[in-house]
Amino acid sequence: MDYQEIAKESVGYLYKAHRSIRTTGLEVQLIALAELRTSQLNGCAYCCAYHANELREMGLAVALIDQLPGWRLATGFDLRQQLVLEWTEVVTTRPADFKSYYPLLLEHFTEKELAELTTSISLMNALNRLRMTLGNH
């Protein structure tokens, strides 16, 4: 189904929000990292390929992209990247203790950055689900 054409206006707003988040001041590479991890968690093959390629083009080391599924055991991710990956998993799976992550996150991100990051992850979850349920496979 060509959901992007069928629901052109509604889906267009989602993509407009996606583009807008990338102009907020939060490092675009961190946003793309969160988008790739979200897509991995959701199993969206199209989005995984798209965001992995995007990160390569942004200069993220291929070794890090390859290690992303096992990021907790990898040594190459810096602290902000690790926090983004952790928060991505929290937002996507929403464990009961999700608020316990706020203090550490707010030591390393402003409230605006955290809000934008959370919006990006939430939006990617929605876009993954649209692609996986209605997209052409």
TrEMBL record:
<dbReference type="InterPro" id="IPR003779">
    <property type="entry name" value="CMD-like"/>
</dbReference>
<dbReference type="Pfam" id="PF02627">
    <property type="entry name" value="CMD"/>
</dbReference>
<dbReference type="InterPro" id="IPR004675">
    <property type="entry name" value="AhpD_core"/>
</dbReference>
<protein>
    <submittedName>
        <fullName>Carboxymuconolactone decarboxylase family protein</fullName>
    </submittedName>
</protein>
<feature type="domain" description="Carboxymuconolactone decarboxylase-like">
    <location>
        <begin position="23"/>
        <end position="89"/>
    </location>
</feature>
<dbReference type="InterPro" id="IPR029032">
    <property type="entry name" value="AhpD-like"/>
</dbReference>
